[in-house]
Amino acid sequence: MGDARQLMRSRARSPVVPVALGLVVFGLANFAFLAFAARDLGPAASAPVSVMWTVVNAFGIGLFMPLEQDLARRLSATRALGGRGVVGWRPLRYALGAIVVIVLVLVLAGGVIGRTFFAGAPGMVWVLGAGLGAQAVAYATRGLLAGYGAFGRYGAQLALDGVIRTVGSIALAAGGAAATGYGWVLVAAPVLASAIVLIGWSGRRDRTGTDAESSPSSAPFGALVAVSVLSQVLANAGPMLIAALAAPSEQAMSGKFVLAVTVARIPLFAFAAVQAVFLPLLAARVATDDVGGFGRTTRTALVATAALGSLGALGILAFGPFVQSVLYGPDFAVSRWIVFLVAVSGGLFMLAQVFSIALLAHGDDWAAAWGWGLGVLGIGLGLLLDRPLAEQVAWALCTGAFVAAVAHAVRLRAVLARWKESS
Predict the structure, then answer these.
(1) pLDDT band of 373, cuts 50, 70, 90
(2) Could you tell me how far CA 380 lies from the centroid of its own chain?
(3) How far apart, in whole angstroms, are the C-alpha atoms of residue 48 and residue 69?
(4) Which residues contact 196 (CB under 8 A, 6 or more apart)?
């Protein structure tokens, strides 16, 4: 009986639970945000909102997820060895440098970006810049929380971000706002949520161990940035390809495709809960030279991810069109086959992520970056197919994710073999 109670308490304290709950709220809020914008503005007028949401996810996550990953990996590894760790200046220098680059790009190429991706809403270009800056705040906050094991606050940050997005989109839909208003909601939500969860929190509650700066990664920070940017380009290439390749009569398809992606990739929201905990856990295994535990944890994650991706794709095949109609209305319908292909690409992408995270935990950042780079190149294989644009892009997402997964798997197998030989 005592063992059973201990097991129940252990599960209740599992870091996955609060993160998963936060992601559920955050995921539902994204559906609500896009649904309110779509129903308020219509297929064509809501396309800039959908594209901005995609670009913020692609390049915001791509540029600033390294903040979370680097902080989480270094702080958790230091804590596993008995220290507390001090963050240091490297993450701040990187964040400020990235923001400067974003501003320069928008100053030099804002006109081209506005014409290519935001036709009909050129004001969205600078809202996009603010949205990317807001992502820096959100991911730095989550990196600190994950690194210190404060997963309750991590989940709360996600949930609050989602609540603010939902409330903001409801208010805008009721008042009949323009597309830029929805863009500003994407700016305000992550900043406000981060500020709220950090009120009254101190990460240095564990008074054991040394006060040394957390151990730096053995790989350059640029490699981690390359991993993040390339993986998000691959994950979010679909809507951007549609926006860039569509004829004038097909412009509304970019908004429709974004909404189809949100439905088809519902399993990715569940996977994100595992992903947030997976990297710090594996980093601790590497720090303590636990090759057996590293392998077991990775295999468990792969099996769970494969099951999640398969069930998700079958569920989307069965219910995807119905979910699209309920959430966004019949004007945003995309064929069952296209939604299924996007779901398959999401499953392959999740497997590629598991292999990539394992490589990152082992410090093999450049190998992970090369794998994602090959995946981006693999998109071209799908674009060679002579199919209608939306189906062609869906196939491209599948081929790109498959190439990335294979490249990462091959490299990880070699890394583990060498590690076992040296242990």
Answers:
(1) very high
(2) 22
(3) 30
(4) 156, 157, 160
Q: Which residue has the higher pLDDT, 333 or 126?
A: 126
Q: Using alpha carbons, select from 386, 381, 380, 387 the residue that is nearest to residue 337.
A: 387
| Cβ-contact 339, 324 below 8 angstroms | yes
Q: Which amino acid, one-letter code, is at 347?
A: G
pLDDT digits (tens, 9 = 90+) for 97-141: 999 999 999 999 888 888 877 766 778 899 999 999 999 999 999
Place of tokens 């996600």: 158
User: Exposure pattern of 62-95 as b/e (b: 16+ CB <10 Å)?
Assistant: bbbbbbbbbbbbbbbbbbbeebbbebeebbeebb
**Long-range own/partner contacts, residues 198-207 (CB < 8 A, 24 or more apart):** 198/141, 198/153, 201/150, 201/153, 203/75, 203/144, 203/145, 203/147, 203/148, 203/150, 204/84, 204/148, 205/148, 206/79, 206/84
CA distances from 266 to 24, 136, 339 (A): 10, 24, 11
Q: How far apart, in whole angstroms, are the C-alpha atoms of residue 33 and residue 46?
A: 11
Distance CA 360, CA 369 (A): 10
Question: 82 in the Ramachandran plot: left (φ > 0), alpha (ψ -120 to 50) or beta?
Answer: left
> How many CA atoms, within 13 angstroms, populate the side-chain half-sphere of residue 281?
20
Distance CA 315, CA 343 (A): 9
Which of these, 304, 273, 313, 332, lies nearest to 394 by C-alpha position?
Answer: 313
The residue written with tokens 């979910």 in the block is 323
Confidence of residue 398 (pLDDT cuts 50, 70, 90): very high
CA angle 255, 185, 224 (to 5 degrees): 80
